[in-house]
Amino acid sequence: MISWRKHYKKGLIAIGLLLSTSASIYGQDGDPKNGEKLFKANCTACHALDKQVVGPALKGVVDRLKTEQGLDTDWLHKWIKDNKALRASGDKYANEVFEKFNKTEMQVFPNLADKDIDDILAYTTNPPVEEPKADAKATTENTVAAPQNNNTTSSIVIISLIAIAGLLVWILIKLRQLVKLGQSEDLAGLNETRVKSFSEIYAKYHYIGKGLLAILAILATYGIWNWIMWIGVYKGYKPEQPIYFSHKIHAGEQKIDCQLCHSSAKYGKVSEIPSMNVCMNCHRTISEYNADHYMEPGKDKAFYDGEIQKIYAATGWDPAKQQYTGKTTPVEWTRIHNMPDFVYFNHSQHVVAGEQAIINSFNKKNPDNKIDVVCKACHGKIDTMNVVQMANDFTMGWCIECHRTTEVDMNNGYNKEYFKNLHEKLKKQYPKDGGKITVDAIGGLECGKCHY
């Protein structure tokens, strides 16, 4: 009896060890929640759970390797930490994977501890169930419903005002009829002697008439002049683009630096429109919109996903095969900011040389609306715009005013040495200002600086 109990206990211990080993093999001994964080931080650039991106889909990878290749988590640990070394050792399957995915080398992760890798594998085996998300469509409908109610109220008010106006007109007509009925013969005779033509009125009051005509001529001249001066000024212009691109999502929500896409603004005269290949740097792996915390009213996930598909169509990218087809379609963007041909403007001069000076000047003039990026001084708070619009006038007067009020950064070593004599001269000439140097003092108002 004692012998049987000993064997029974040994059997239970063996079964327990077997189960614990099996759990380790199938990635169940890790923390899926922590694994999710690690997966998103290290793996999502090339992998997804449910579809192939740059690398294969990873959901159930532990089970697949065990079933198809007879490999356990030890192999995965080696592959994740240093797949190059594993391939160099002659591992057959490691080299097969490398060949299968177009010899695209996977990043090595020697910094990940064994526990971290176990957590990631646990996440791929048993991903945590996502909490139900708020119905974005319902939220959108509620958001849209409010303006509709306001429109209904406005319509009722307008109809009521029109009815009141009609009633007043009817009352005036009736009063006029009553007055005519009550006129005496003397009053009727007086009416016959009144002036009844414009020529008679003008002859009687020609001095007043000439004065009014002169005033009208002056106002008309001013109106025409003002209209001419604003030709080509398109403040508020925001055209619809062939592919919807929200700067609020990219620059605002995702904190993407302006110069990551508009790289030539720092090194060249023109800040070019980014090529579609720049978009594909991110959207090669981001094929759908998952930021449910922000959606514009009237737009849903399907809308944003459709715009990403337009990027793929333009670049000839096949997301299923993860390769380019070679069939590209140019995107005809509508330009928003466009200086006249006779105006010279250099982005690099403002973005690099004048960066700190422009930011300081803008924040000094706008203490309640400060900026942190030099681009916003001219283009407005672009990180809050879903549809980009022209935020300023971009007239000659607007530029001159900026040059007259923006102080040159004298903390810059080059400026401090180059403008040393000028600075000393201005200190003596304008002691109250402390010799303040603005852009106009160093040639910022010379015609040849901006005009060919």
TrEMBL record:
Every copy of the Cytochrome c domain together lies at 30-128
Record GO terms (molecular function):
electron transfer activity; heme binding; metal ion binding
Cite the SUPFAM superfamilies for this sequence: Cytochrome c, Multiheme cytochromes
The cross-references to InterPro entries, in alphabetical order and at most eight, read:
Cyt_c-like_dom, Cyt_c-like_dom_sf, Multihaem_cyt_sf
- Show which residues constitute the signal peptide: 1-27
**Pfam families, per this entry?**
Cytochrom_C
Q: Where are the transmembrane segments?
A: 155-173, 212-233
| Keywords of this entry | Heme, Iron, Membrane, Metal-binding, Signal, Transmembrane, Transmembrane helix
Q: Does the keyword ATP-binding apply?
A: no
Q: What domain of life?
A: Bacteria
- Protein name (database record): Quinol:cytochrome C oxidoreductase
Q: Which organism is it from?
A: Chryseobacterium formosense
